[in-house]
Write a structure and sequence with these properties.
about 290 residues; three-stranded antiparallel sheet; disordered N terminus; 3 domains; Arc Repressor Mutant, subunit A; mainly alpha
C-alpha cells in the first residue's frame, strides 16, 4: 500500500477532509453576504459541497448514506434540525471558517493562456502545452504535444443551465430576474446581462469549472500543474469602477426591499427631481411635494 493510498483510506484523514469541506461551504455562505449564513437547508449544504468539489462530492466517500447522515457525523460542528421542512443545518462554531481554504479559483485569476486554452471555443483553434505555457496552433503541426480540452459551445450551454438550476438555492430571485436569467441562458448573453447579484456567483462558478477541468487534465496526462495557474489579483474589487446602469439597478433593488419608513427617509437630489418631473419650478414643487418636502 502506498503512502497516498494509506492517507486516503485513513478514517481520520477522511473525517478531517469532510470538516474542511464543511468549513468551505459555510465560509462561502458568509462571503456571499447572507445575514444568517450559519444556517442552511441540507439541500443547500449539499449543493455548496458539490460546487466546492466540482460536483464530485459523494456522501458515501465519508461513510454516510445521505446528506443527513453526513451532517450527523460531525456533532461537534453541525446541528441537524429535522423538524424543519426542509431539514436545516446549523453551524455550531464559527471559528472553523476562519482558516477555511476557499476553492482556488475564488482566490485569484486563472492564467490568461490557460483560460484561453479551455474557453476559446469560438475560434476553432487548438491549444497545446509546450511544458511552460498553452500555445495556439491552427494546423496542429506541433508534433506530439498534449492538447488542451477546449470546451464546446454545448458544454458552455450545460454550464449555464447548471448555474441557472442551482442559483435559487443561493439567492432569491424576483420573477423579473428569473426571466432575465432564462434569457441569459437561452440567448447566450454576456455576464453583464445577468441580474446584478448573480454576476459574481457566475464568475466564481465558471472559474471553478475551468480550474477543475485543468486540474484533471494535468493529472490525467501526468503533467506537473503550474504553480501560477491561478494568479493573485492585482487590483482590489472595490477599486473596480461601477457603471451607471449597474449602480441604478443596485439602487432600484434596494428600493424594492425598503420599508415604508426607509422610503420616507430617502433624500432625492433636486436635479434628479427636475429631470423626473419635467423641470422648472412647478416640476420641482411637484416632485418635492410627493417626497413630502413641500
Amino acid at each position: 500500500m502506498t503512502d497516498e493510498q494509506s492517507a486516503t483510506d485513513d478514517p481520520t484523514h477522511v473525517q478531517d477532509n469532510g470538516r474542511e469541506l464543511v468549513a468551505q461551504a459555510f465560509e462561502s455562505a458568509r462571503r456571499s453576504g447572507r445575514l444568517n449564513w450559519t444556517e442552511m437547508t441540507t439541500a443547500v449544504l449539499k449543493n455548496r459541497l458539490l460546487d466546492i468539489t466540482g460536483r464530485a462530492f459523494k456522501e458515501s466517500d465519508y461513510g454516510a448514506r445521505d446528506i443527513a447522515s453526513f451532517v450527523k457525523a460531525y456533532p461537534d460542528l453541525l446541528a441537524l434540525d429535522n423538524s424543519a421542512i426542509p431539514p436545516k443545518v446549523k453551524l455550531i462554531t464559527t471559528s472553523v471558517t476562519e482558516n477555511a481554504k476557499l476553492p482556488i479559483a475564488s482566490q485569484g485569476r486563472i492564467r490568461p493562456d490557460l483560460w484561453r486554452a479551455v474557453m476559446d471555443y469560438r475560434s476553432g483553434r487548438s491549444y497545446y502545452w509546450d511544458g511552460k505555457q498553452a500555445i495556439a496552433n491552427d494546423s496542429a503541426t506541433l508534433g506530439p504535444l498534449p492538447k488542451f480540452p477546449t470546451i464546446s459551445s454545448e458544454e458552455m450551454d450545460n454550464w449555464r443551465r447548471n448555474f441557472q438550476e442551482t442559483l435559487p438555492e443561493k439567492i432569491s430571485l424576483s420573477e423579473q430576474e428569473g426571466e432575465q436569467l432564462e434569457n441569459w441562458v437561452t440567448v447566450r448573453l454576456p455576464t453583464n446581462n445577468l441580474p446584478l447579484q448573480a454576476r459574481s456567483l457566475w464568475n466564481e462558478h465558471l472559474n471553478n469549472r475551468v480550474v477543475k477541468l485543468l486540474r484533471e487534465w494535468f493529472r490525467d496526462n501526468s503533467l506537473l500543474m503550474p504553480d501560477d495557474m491561478v494568479q493573485q489579483r492585482t487590483t482590489s474589487r472595490s477599486a473596480t469602477p461601477v457603471g451607471v446602469a449597474q449602480l441604478r439597478e443596485f439602487i432600484l433593488r434596494c428600493v424594492k426591499n425598503m420599508t415604508e419608513d426607509e422610503l420616507k427617509a430617502i433624500n432625492l437630489p433636486p436635479s434628479a427631481v427636475l429631470r423626473a418631473y419635467g423641470g422648472g419650478e412647478a416640476g420641482l414643487r411637484l416632485g418635492l411635494g410627493r417626497q413630502g418636502g413641500l
